[in-house]
Amino acid sequence: MPSPLYRSITAGSTRSNLGTYSIKEHEKESRSSHDTSSDGRHSQTFMSNDALRTPIFGEDNHLLTPALGKEGLKRKKPKSNLVKSNSQFISRVIPHDNLTKRLQEHTPEGLFVFANIDRAYQWLDFSSPTPARAQPLMKILFTKAHVLCHDINHFTKSPNHIDVIMGANTGDIVWFEAYSQKYFRINKGNIISTSPISEIRWLPGSENLFLASHMDGTLIVYDKERDDAAFTPETTNNGL
To answer: What residues contact 196, with CB distance under 8 A and at least 6 apart?
Structure first.
């Protein structure tokens, strides 16, 4: 028969004189969320919202922040009128005869479609009834360039504003604002890169930054609000 369990009398016991020891390596080290306080209860530390927030790409890099002008922070907008453009880069622009009316009839729940086909770039309204659905709101024909990729900035999109960025096989990038029918050409004359663009994407949460993947293997962050300048990649001592 096993012996009964021994039970000590703890009513008159006292706290040990050994003291409380910490496993911290340094005195300035903060307590973790699982540390135990002197009275035996578990303490818990809370992280601020700033510590949990995902940082926006480039927000701590002064080279990727919008420039301050005389009037403070101003967002650059396309200056060149696409329809009236005399650029040799663009062959022809064909807006719909009733473009203004069709835009006014478009509902916020409607579906706009942007498509790059050969040398043409088309803007369509798939929420329009047929046969108007098959008629582009605008068709852009480039002289020699073929648009290979494009992206919509969902951060700046509104019922009367759509920022579109396009990447071409010539290495050119076109920033196009659909409602104002204005555009701006980036990497003009291949001043930054001569390589075709295989993919292009706006950076999430950014009004002006986008990432372009060139076919020579380079990834370049562009800023639609900065003028083109000669680009020289930085290299480390080992050439990487």
So the answer is: 148, 167, 168, 169, 170, 171, 214, 215
Most confident segment among 59-68, 167-176, 217-226: 167-176
Q: What is the secondary structure of 53-68 as a DSSP string?
A: SPPPTTTT-GGGSPPE
Q: What is the mean pLDDT of the chain?
A: 78
**pLDDT, tens digit (0-9, with 9 covering 90-100), for 79-134:** 889 888 888 999 999 999 999 999 998 888 889 999 998 899 999 999 888 777 88
pLDDT computed for residue 66 by the predictor: 58
- Distance between CA atoms of residues 169 and 30, nearest Å: 54
> CA dihedral defined by 138, 144, 145, 146, rounded to 10 degrees?
70
Q: Which residues of 90-111 are buried (b: 16+ CB within 10 A; e: fewer)?
A: beebebbeeeeeebeebeeeee
Task: Say what the alpha-carbon torsion angle 44, 47, 48, 50 is, to the nearest 10 degrees.
Answer: 180
Residue that has been written with the tokens 């809370």 in this structure? 46
- Cα–Cα distance list, 39 to 36, 42, 43 (Å): 8, 9, 10
Main-chain phi, psi angles of 201, to 5 degrees: -145, 135
Whether pTM > 0.70 for this model: the answer is no
